[in-house]
Specification:
The chain is of the alpha+beta class. About 25% of the residues lie in helices and about 35% in strands. The strands form four sheets. A six-stranded mixed sheet has the order 6-7-8-3-9-10, with helices on both faces. A five-stranded antiparallel sheet has the order 13-12-11-14-20.
């Protein structure tokens, strides 16, 4: 196992800065996910940790050992890492066993030790029965497991995974999430995982690093990221949410456009951004809710009803509810809404927060 300390790392390609003052510490045995939209810098950060890229500034340490700085740069093969890419990158002419054994073979490990290690890791990824097959005889998910086994067989201190499930279908992707997490627990290995899929990040991570435009927005557990988002970008990127602007004063927030009010005893005053998640709203008896509006759209999805409610003046919220709780709700109907919780963010003067979300 290995801890990773990233200090003030910046990376620029010419005049384009893709990472800016990245600071984080990942502990031994943690499963850390770098989460963000395409082009936010998460893969660049992973490549810097791997040694495939040199930072423009800053330092990377594994435990107490400097692996990247202004004066030190260790190549990937000397960093004791395993890496799995988005493309499977398995050798097409080798069997599963030979693919997995390859990192040990080039290190000239003796055959008995190779067999012991390969057998163990193939069992961990449920591929023991496919040891003699070649990759073309395997499914995409099986090939991805071969790549994972090959990265694990040398028992690296740090495992780096760059969107390894994005080429798999939805059902297989879901099952592989749990398999990777179980393998990580079994080996007790430190994992850095890159994805733009917030469901993957929530399901697998001990902590999530949310990145946008090369800058860390928030670091926290999945629950912290979801329930206590640091800003509108994090709230919008992780989960479903609708935003309404308003004015906080005298114990309430008056929502712009519709003039409706929400009770608020927080510290913020003046212009604010209110974020309300669909599950934070329930239908209420007429006159008993904090908000009211007209059902703009209604979709019955079997396990839930998904509705958008027009509050007036351009303000909208979304309600996802149990169909039994929302019987009688239909497009065009007036409804009363009970708001169980909501997020409040300060609005900077002249700020168009919706540009932050794009």
């Amino acid at each position: 196992m290995s801890s990773v300390t990233i200090e003030n790392v910046t990376k620029a390609f010419g005049s384009t800065v893709v990472l800016e003052k990245f600071d984080a510490v990942f502990e031994n045995g943690e499963f850390i996910t770098l989460l963000g939209p395409s082009g936010c810098g998460k893969t660049t950060m992973l490549r810097i940790v791997a040694g495939f890229e040199k930072p423009t500034a800053g330092t990377v340490r594994f435990d107490d050992r400097v692996v990247s700085s202004e004066k030190v740069f260790l190549p990937p093969e000397k960093r004791d890492i395993g890496m799995v890419f988005q493309s499977y990158a398995v050798w097409p002419h080798m069997t599963v066993y030979e693919n997995v054994a390859y990192p040990l073979t080039i290190k000239k490990v003796d055959k008995a030790a190779i067999k012991q290690k390969v057998d163990r890791v193939l069992a961990a990824v449920h591929l023991s029965q496919y040891a003699d097959r070649i990759p073309s005889q395997l499914s995409g998910g099986q090939q991805q497991r071969v790549a994972l086994a090959r990265a694990l067989v040398a028992e690296p201190a740090l495992l780096l995974l760059d969107e390894p499930l994005s080429n798999l279908d939805a059902k297989l992707r879901e099952s592989m999430r749990f398999e990777i997490k179980e393998i990580q627990k079994e080996y007790g290995i430190t994992v850095m995982y890159v994805t733009h899929d917030q469901t993957e990040a929530m399901a697998m991570s001990d902590r999530i690093v949310v990145i946008n435009r090369g800058v860390i927005q928030q670091i926290g557990s999945p629950r912290e990221i979801y329930t206590q988002p640091a800003n509108p970008f994090v709230a919008d990127f992780v989960g479903k949410i609708e935003f309404v602007e308003g004015i906080a004063k005298d114990g309430v927030i008056e929502l712009n456009g519709c003039g409706q009010k929400l009770p608020y005893d927080g510290e913020l005053k003046g212009e604010v951004i209110v974020g309300i998640r669909p599950e934070q709203i329930t239908y209420a008896a007429e006159g008993e809710g904090e908000l009211s509006g007209v059902v703009k759209t209604h979709f019955y999805l079997g396990d839930v009803d998904d509705c958008r409610i027009d509050l007036g003046g351009g303000a909208e919220v979304r309600v996802i509810a149990d169909p039994f709780e929302s019987r009688g709700v239909s497009a065009g109907k007036q409804v009363s809404l009970k708001v169980r919780n909501f997020h409040v963010f300060a609005k900077q003067e002249g700020e168009d927060f919706r540009k932050i979300l794009t």
